[in-house]
């Protein structure tokens, strides 16, 4: 009978621990993420076909244009991405938002009609389209 009580106690303790861990995981799973530090900026690139583009975009706000020009890579990201493509950045001042989209023209290929958009806090701020390049920028440039 002692072994039976011991086994029952162990099973009961395991159930209590399991129920407690479920309650804790549900409580932390519902926690709200902290609010972003600044306005949310979304960059969007589209084209007539899923092609690779060289894209350069601002990821953080510089103090001024001189700071940006001194070390552009500290404030922006450059890479080759396939359209359609989008990303977000949190900029302290969304007026620094900028994106350039470029693809070299190829013989016997129709222009891809690159299109860029900058959205600030869910509102379309600027958009532009060009045959092989597109630039979108807000007022700090």
Automatic annotation (TrEMBL):
InterPro entries referenced in this protein's UniProt entry, alphabetically: MmpS_C (IPR038468)
Keyword match Signal: yes
Protein name as annotated: Secreted protein
Source organism superkingdom: Bacteria
Signal peptide range: 1-25
Keyword annotations of the record: Signal
């Amino acid at each position: 009978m002692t072994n039976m009580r011991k086994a029952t106690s162990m099973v009961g303790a395991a159930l209590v621990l399991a129920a407690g861990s479920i309650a804790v995981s549900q409580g932390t799973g519902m926690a709200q993420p902290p609010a972003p530090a600044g306005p949310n900026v979304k960059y969007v690139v589209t084209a007539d076909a899923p092609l690779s583009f060289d894209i350069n975009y601002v990821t953080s706000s510089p103090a001024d244009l001189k700071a940006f020009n001194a070390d552009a890579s500290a404030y922006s990201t450059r890479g080759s991405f396939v359209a359609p493509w989008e990303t977000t950045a949190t900029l302290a001042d969304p007026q620094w938002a900028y994106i350039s989209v470029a693809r070299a023209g190829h013989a016997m290929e129709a222009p891809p009609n690159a299109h860029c958009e900058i959205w600030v806090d869910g509102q379309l701020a600027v958009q532009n389209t060009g045959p092989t390049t597109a630039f979108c920028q807000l007022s700090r440039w």
